[in-house]
């Protein structure tokens, strides 16, 4: 039976990961979460909350080869259960977590909904609550309830809960997001809000659009901080990881052929990987600068600029292409992010998922080149294939060149 990825979703990251046709079981706690994945190819959907024991049983019975936890950062209970179940089944697990935080834009950071409610009680003015129905009970302590407007999903159970907590229909907005900044603005105006309460859902979770709207309307934002900073991965990392775990194929990469003659390329790091890549780029006519506190002998013998210090962001000025090949994972990741911000193609040697292009294995003879790749799934396979091709390439190029010349001569006769 085919091995599958078990994805705990119900988030935009979860939906994103169903787009690539991996054999997958998508588990969502609610109907709403399940809806996000409806229609995804090769994906079986299961709905309903499971505790750690139920998860373990499910994993054992469903041929699950690896698990991705893409649940909401606030669903800490779910993540704990998933961790426990995976440990019990010895199944590898990767946590996907949106990284971007909007916390710096908030007027006030609080630890919980209760703390937000305490603050509201001490102030005046209307409040738009966008923290969802689960947190609603905490706001019951606000004495003047007519100040509060709540935005929730149009689910009958949720509406019932709102009513039970004393929100009348004039104070409920029941609609499914995502909401644009313009939509948020209109809702802030309509409710006459002076305060907006939100979780730190990251830009992708719609928090960015709320912050933009609040800024425009002069509304102060009370933000509930994330429970704790977990070590999370991006969707791209999880996709690559799952493919490697299961040995799943992917479409081949498209080798976009780029003319680097006379253009500048910058490399951070002075070790073996930097040297190999500098040599390839120089062969392609690029003007290469390498930045590193230390250089290996191979680099000192190449025709490239050597800058003996740690990498700085300004090293990207004027570069057409960048390579991060230091042995410091954090520095490499910073270089990747900075280059992407500037629209400079970047390869990050220790993290395939952070690359905006992959460094190819290049096989050349004069201007005739071949680019070999194993789709970034196995650099070792790439190297072996390239070596095999290198062993015949020169001979092939010579033979085929003369064949082409021969055909030309024949035509000219
Ligand atoms: C082609 C080549 C060009 C070059 O480097 O010059 C190249 N890797 C080569 C060899 C090689 N690299 C590694 C090993 C050790 C064995 C192994 O781990 O499998 C070997 C094999 C060996 O040395 O035998 C380690 C490694 N590589 C990457 C990661 C991180 C990760 O995958 O996340 C790690 C773990 C690092 C760690 O542990 O920290 C990532 C990438 N390496 C790429 C290119 C990009 C994909 C290209 C494609 O396949 O499409 C990609 C995705 C991104 C990028 O760097 O742009 C070159 C062949 C040179 C040639 O012979 O011509
Ligand atoms: N993609 C690949 O083909 C591949 C292959 C093997 C290893 N790797 C990864 O690539 C990285 C480099 O591998 P290596 O074998 O060349 O390592 P290495 O240890 O030989 O070289 C690392 C270099 O980075 C420099 N450096 C450290 N901090 C720096 C900073 N802040 N600014 C500039 N330079 C800095 C060091 O001085 C050193 O010269 C490693 O992270 C390794 O995991 C990738």
From TrEMBL:
Pathway(s) this gene product operates in, as recorded in its UniProt entry: Porphyrin-containing compound metabolism; siroheme biosynthesis; sirohydrochlorin from precorrin-2: step 1/1; Cofactor biosynthesis; adenosylcobalamin biosynthesis
Enzyme class: oxidoreductase
Gene3D superfamilies in the record: NAD(P)-binding Rossmann-like Domain
InterPro entries: NAD(P)-bd_dom_sf (IPR036291), Precorrin-6x_reduct (IPR003723), Sirohaem_synthase_N (IPR006367)
Coiled-coil regions listed in the entry: none
Organism lineage: Bacteria, Thermotogati, Synergistota, Synergistia, Synergistales
Name of the protein this chain belongs to: precorrin-2 dehydrogenase
Reactions catalysed according to its record: precorrin-2 + NAD(+) = sirohydrochlorin + NADH + 2 H(+)
Pfam family, one: NAD_binding_7
GO molecular function, one term: precorrin-2 dehydrogenase activity
Superkingdom: Bacteria
Signal peptide range: none
Record keyword Transport present: no
Enzyme Commission code(s) on record: 1.3.1.76
Record keywords: Cobalamin biosynthesis, NAD, Oxidoreductase, Porphyrin biosynthesis
Keyword NAD: yes
GO biological process: cobalamin biosynthetic process; siroheme biosynthetic process
């Amino acid at each position: 039976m085919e091995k599958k990825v078990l994805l705990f979703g119900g988030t935009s990251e979860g939906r994103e990961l169903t787009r690539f046709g991996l054999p997958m079981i998508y588990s969502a706690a609610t109907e709403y979460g399940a809806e996000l994945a409806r229609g995804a190819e090769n994906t079986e959907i299961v709905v309903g909350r499971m505790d750690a024991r139920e998860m373990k049983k499910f994993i054992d019975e469903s041929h699950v080869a690896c698990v991705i936890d893409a649940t909401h950062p606030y669903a800490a209970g779910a993540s704990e259960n998933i961790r426990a179940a995976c440990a019990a089944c010895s199944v590898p697990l990767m946590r996907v977590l949106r990284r971007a935080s909007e916390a710096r834009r908030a007027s006030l950071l609080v630890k919980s909904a209760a703390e937000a409610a305490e603050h509201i009680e001490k102030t005046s003015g209307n409040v738009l609550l966008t923290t969802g129905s689960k947190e609603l009970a905490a706001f019951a302590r606000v004495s003047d309830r007519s100040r509060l407007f709540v935005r929730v999903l149009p689910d009958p159970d949720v509406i019932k809960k709102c009513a039970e907590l004393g929100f009348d229909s004039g104070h409920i907005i029941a609609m499914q997001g995502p909401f644009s900044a313009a939509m948020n603005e209109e809702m802030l105006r309509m409710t006459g809000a002076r305060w907006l309460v939100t979780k730190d859902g990251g830009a992708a979770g719609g928090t960015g659009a709320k912050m933009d709207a609040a800024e425009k309307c002069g509304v102060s934002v009370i933000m509930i901080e994330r429970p704790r900073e977990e070590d999370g991965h991006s969707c791209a990392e999880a996709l690559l990881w799952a493919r490697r775990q299961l040995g799943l194929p992917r479409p081949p990469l498209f080798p976009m052929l780029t003319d680097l003659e006379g253009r500048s390329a910058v490399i951070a790091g002075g070790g073996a990987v930097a040297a190999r890549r500098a040599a390839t780029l120089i062969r392609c006519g690029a003007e290469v600068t390498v930045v590193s506190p230390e250089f290996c002998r191979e680099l000192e013998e190449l025709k490239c600029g050597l800058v003996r210090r740690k990498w700085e962001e300004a090293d990207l000025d004027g570069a057409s292409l960048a390579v991060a090949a230091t042995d410091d994972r954090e520095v490499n990741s910073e270089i990747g992010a900075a280059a992407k911000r500037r629209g400079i193609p970047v390869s990050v040697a220790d993290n395939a998922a952070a690359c905006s292009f992959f460094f190819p294995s290049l096989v050349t003879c004069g201007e005739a080149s071949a680019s070999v790749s194993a789709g970034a799934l196995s650099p070792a396979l790439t190297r072996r294939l390239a070596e095999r091709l290198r062993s015949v390439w020169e001979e092939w190029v010579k033979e085929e060149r003369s064949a082409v010349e021969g055909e030309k001569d024949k035509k000219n006769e």
